Amino acid sequence: MIACTIILIVMAGCYLLLDASMTLARTARDAYASTTITNARLDRAKMVAYSALSGLAENGTLVDDYGLPSSQGRFRRVTTVTTNQPQSGCTQLTVTTDVQQPGQTAGCYYNAHSMTLVLTTYDTAQ
To answer: Which residue among 2, 43, 70, 85 is the one 20 to 30 A from 50 at the CA level?
Structure first.
């Protein structure tokens, strides 16, 4: 009986350790994916014509692990486009991506990553 109790305590401890390490691994993976999705959106902005940057604005678009829009996406991405910021002639893009809390309702997000890019166009006519 004592041996079974000791084995049970050891197994419970192993389970708690495994659960904690799985949670940590999932959090690290989600943070990496969130950062990658945010970077990809900013890289996309660099390839868009300056006059079309305002078309990149989005508010809470659900995306999958690859940054593609999906109604089942675990990540929420917000892109704000602000003209004449930080100074006249510049356009500032801020992308924020966060991940849905595992096992929670659809509106519970955490681990937000934000990055900002400032683009400008130069008059090349002489």
So the answer is: 70
Report how far residue 57's alpha carbon sits from residue 48's, in angstroms, rounded to the nearest whole number.
12
Q: Judging by DSSP bridges, how do beta strands 90-100 and 75-83 pair with one another?
A: antiparallel
Burial class (CB in 10 A: 0-12, 13-18, 19+), 119: middle
Q: What is the pTM of this model?
A: 0.79
In the block, tokens 């084995």 appear at 7
Residue keyed to tokens 């400008």: 120
User: Can you point out the beta strands (E) in the chain?
Assistant: 58-63, 75-83, 90-100, 109-120
Mean pLDDT of 33-38: 92
CA distance 12 to 125: 73
Three-state DSSP class for residue 88: coil
Q: Domain-by-domain residue ranges, the chain?
A: 2-120
Instruction: From 62, 47, 124, select the one nearest 93 (Cα to Cα).
Output: 47
